Amino acid sequence: MNGRTGYLAFALCCALVLQVHVWLVTHGTYALAALEDHAQFYDALADSLVEGRLDVPAETLGDEAIEVDGRYYGYFGPTPALPRIVLNALWPAMHGRWSRAMLLGCALGQLLLLAWLLRCRGVSLGRPLAVGFLVTVGLGSTQSFVSARAFLYHEAIAWGALLTIACACALLRAVERPESLMPAAVAGACAVGALLARVSTGGAAVAACLVVAAAPGRATRGQRIVLLMAIVGAVGAYLALNQARFGAALDGAPVERTQTYVKYPDRLRRIEGRKLHPQNALFLAVEYLGPTRLRFRVGFPWIAFPDPPWSGRAPERFDLVEPHASLTATSPALVVLAVIGLLGRATDRASRRIALVLLFPLPLMLAFACLSHRYLHDLLPVLAVAGALGVAACPPLDPARRVLIAGLVAWSVVACVSLAAVFQREIIWGVSIDSKAQWLELRRRVDALTGAPRPTPYDR
Known about the structure:
By secondary structure, the chain is mainly α. It has 20 helices and six strands. It has one domain (3-450).
């Protein structure tokens, strides 16, 4: 199905994804311009950048603030603040109210980029597998969880993932069209933006640029020069930013100066003053990748975060455990398509290299001293890009495989949207009583239809 039919299918897919995300990001109120808790940092940083400064008011960061010589800085990069400079100048009444719209923009931007990548690979947007893939990226992935709260760190993760996907898509186009410098220039610009949004996903974008620039093969001399200039610019900007904020170019988040650890020095001692500990890898691999890291419960929505089994067996140098489930349990459709894209014979070597290097955040995640479901979003670029390659590599499916993929897509959407709703309405702080009551009433109505026991507000 090509032409109008394919674009109509894509438009309906986008409409479905945006409808769910608007419901999530607004807590069911559909008020996109409402103030969000812990989401004013980037607007404050935009104001500071206009004045030639990098410090912000301490209250915009809370315990995430890093104090240096009486001034407060965030370890978050400036990329999400840059569009706010223009937006706040045009619509000053929206100052501090952009975070929800930004998350929606990131969700929609990913779908547009991946649809473009599929078309570049000759895949019709009306093909059922392509539609299922795009719905899975939009709803059956950690994008749903990130949209559950428009916190500043959720926005940082969303921007990093979006720009890394954009960088990878541009690099894939660059190796297909070596006569053009534009794809390489776009990839380089996106890599700079990604690194200055979130260092883990941004590091993947920079590494992908390096792989294309250094690997023998299709890239021309002009493309290599453009990519190397972007790499030097990205790394140089990151180091300069750290030096200007913290007086240490190689330390992007001085733990000992972060207010959380100033207030709770026992937590700093427990992790020995640093966040990365390779000995945490096995524990985190099981929690993030184990297929059983999900829980079923009685009553709607029937899916919840696992009970905490880590008590008494978490690594010694570990700081914080937040609600989480595993990637394989919640997004199996993306995992399967990504594996096909990475390992399938139909994927060319250059494309496989670009997709593989997007696994850059995984070693950092597995060595980190904190565990949170949102960190899985750092793997969305590799899952999305490799998944698109997998869709392109798949021949027409027989009925049995079609049913299997459809089941995986349906499960992924249900699991991820359910976890996002449970996190927002039953776990995290800052959600209004009205939104929680609305959710509880929905649960009661569904459970009345299914005969499940009546839920309580604290039944997780």
